Amino acid sequence: MPQFIPDPSSFDILRGKVIVITGGAQGIGAGLVTRLHQLGAKVIFGDISQPHSQSLLESLGNPPTVTAVEADLATYSGNYRLFRTAFDQYGHVDHALGNAALFEHPGPSSWIDPNLTIDTVGDEALAHPHNKILDLNVYGLCVFARMAAVFLRENRPAGEKDASITLFGSVCCIRDSPGAYIYQTSKLAILGLLRSMRKPVLETFGIRTNTICPGVTQSPMTKRVFHRIQARGLSTQKVDDVVDMTLGLMSDPTINGRSLYVERGTGWEFEEELDRSMQIWLGEEPTKLLRANAEYVNTGALLRDED
Known about the structure:
CATH superfamily of the largest domain: NAD(P)-binding Rossmann-like Domain
Radius of gyration: 20 Å
Strand order of the largest sheet: 1-9-8-7-6-5-2-3-4
Distance between the termini: 38 Å
GO molecular function: oxidoreductase activity
Structural class: alpha/beta
Order of helices and strands: EEHEHEHEHEHEHHEEHHH
Number of helices: 10
Family: Belongs to the short-chain dehydrogenases/reductases (SDR) family.
CATH architecture of the largest domain: 3-Layer(aba) Sandwich
Keywords: Oxidoreductase
Largest sheet: 9 strands, mixed
Pfam families: adh_short
InterPro entries: NAD(P)-bd_dom_sf, SDR_fam
Mean pLDDT: 92
């Protein structure tokens, strides 16, 4: 896979930019809020946890250029409130980062549970925690993308051509994650969202869309497993490693439609490589058939009622 090496000197292009972030109170989101504030960006972040949001603001010295919005980002109204707050405050939005997500936990409520029986599996209460994961990780992110496509094209500053949407996936987009039934499913959906957006959203609105897929990162989401993985000498990384790669994608106006696997401060782009090597892993004949269909679909055929 082509290695992606961000140029930190390019990050200064984000100074003064209006940037919306979901799930900004902890973990990678908080790291992004912090670094973007240090770079001089105007940051509006949403999170359902007011105490964590307030703690982050206090750690930054309650700067006027960082705004926290209490919002349930699994809902339509929560996402709208976040973007509307940014727009009403600054008159436009330059970049949007969809980071909010939930992870499932093992135990009696595991989705595929050997202890479930034909009687107990009918209890609808078993679905509630997993519905929350799908609501935030899939529906919430789809709503986020819809809002971003509208707000990022409104009142674009004169001479400012670049705007971007960054969707946060996971290493689960690439490898098996046994037992993370709903989480892995939800993260794979993000690749589908990227692949459906990257062409029409750029061509129609001039907005770039990319995806970050981090490996195991030290954050509240991974606290249950992080040290066990680290103790075995396996690959782990810090929040700043992911932040640098994200800023690199945001800062380069030529990058669109890419998925970046991030591990130990290094990034590898895999969308283009998957396409380039298709004949090797899929075969010559099916690749020919697929590409012929794709050529037609890429004309926007799926969006038309009829030819």
